[in-house]
Write a structure and sequence with these properties.
The protein has one helix and seven strands. By secondary structure, it is mainly beta.
């Protein structure tokens, strides 16, 4: 059996290698796709055919940024994707993609702190 068709790295899913510098995207929507053996949320963008496979960290960040755990509320929102060399997986530094808000934008929800802490 020839393996050529299995060797392609072409994919619409973003890889950390695709982000030589941070990029600004507008979220178009999300759906679920099978990645390996797991179902993952995939973000789609208005300004690109790129797609982001979301991990738990990025989903939590996005929910905090936009004040909602419903991906439909994220549609039309801007997000910056960037390569973070310090992403850990299974106890090893492997690098990966992280999300952040564009400069000057604040998260919809500010973290709530207990002001009664005595120090």
């Amino acid at each position: 059996m020839e393996i050529d068709k299995f060797m392609s790295t072409e994919s619409n899913w973003l890889r950390q290698e695709d982000l030589d510098k941070p990029r600004l995207y507008t979220i178009k929507g999300a759906d679920v796709a099978k990645v390996g053996e797991d179902d993952k949320i995939i973000l789609h963008f208005e300004d690109s055919d790129d797609q982001l496979v979301c991990n738990v960290t990025n989903l939590s960040l996005l929910a905090n940024f936009y004040g909602s755990t419903n991906t439909e509320d994220w549609e039309g929102k801007k997000v910056v994707l960037w390569r973070d060399e310090n992403v850990m997986y299974a106890g090893k530094r492997v690098g990966g993609i992280r999300v952040r808000l564009p400069k000057g934008e604040e998260p919809a929800k500010k973290p709530e702190f207990d002001d009664d802490v005595p120090f």
